[in-house]
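Hey, weird one. I pasted the ATP-binding cassette domain-containing protein sequence into the form twice and got a warning about non-standard characters only the second time. First submission, copied straight from the form history:
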Amino acid sequence: MITVTDLRKVYRQGNREVVALDGVSLEVPKGSIHGIVGHSGAGKSTLVRCLTLLDAPTSGSVSINGAELSSAGHQDLRAARRRIGMIFQHANLMDSRTAVQNVAHPLEIVKTPKDRIRTRAAELLKLVGLAGFENAYPSQLSGGQKQRVGIARALASDPDVLLCDEPTSALDPKTTDEILALIKDLTARLGLTVLVITHEMHVVKRICDSVSLLAGGRIVEHGKLRDVAANLGSELSRTLLPLPAAEPLGSGAVLEILYSGDRASEPMLTSAARRFDLDLNVLAGSVETLAGTQFGHLRIQLPDGADPAPLAAYLEDQGVSVRAAGKDAA
């Protein structure tokens, strides 16, 4: 549904070239939610602008729903953009218009019949949970309600794709979860394909099927959520499955272990401790469910002088990922 191939964007600042995107390639299947994460300056916002051709790429191609945007003529590009809904960090509603009038605006631009505009806008407000708020002005709405109006507006043109640029970063935690649940529900009900640009891993955990890490204008990690989480030691895995800080006790070897699926509910660590007659100390641990798969992530310490190799080999034979962690790991 969304295919990006070797996308580059270079800006000129005086005599200097700034590479914002450096060969980004990406494919998001129909009906899925894909997250793009990265620190400030990684190129996330530039990618969104290039996906809609609001900012022309220096090279490379962008295809959405089979339409090649990067080489499309003016009329074809306008038609393709109507099939893309945009949700922003701030809803950017028009203060002088009511909720239903804000939602109606995209339909007015394409000269939809007036009776159809009113009906459709009211339907969309009901769809996002705002039935009864049709005549409310933005000043009368909460932050979450404004974002719901923004989502309804993005759906006005019956898009195939939703591009969400930091859709919840201006919201409190409870409202964030409500908006994320709404986006996930709409994706399933309407068969949408969603690309979410975010710096919040909570967003990725809650709704994404797959994720890419953007750094320095390049995708440095990419994959299905459960796959990247299972890659012990990767940056995405560390961010998705963080461990709280903990100081080692004594001088015993420290191991970091990661297990998932059925393994997460089995007492493997207890069995391993009995098998090798070891008193294992759990320094830190977390259990989370990502994309329907449960993960357990632990940092354990062996008694002073104990050889970690047999224990590590045994755990790996059981399907557990193991790596040595420095005694100062935290």
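That's the output from the first submission. The warning seems to come from a hidden character in my clipboard, not from the data itself. The domain at 2-229 is CATH 3.40.50.300 (Rossmann fold).
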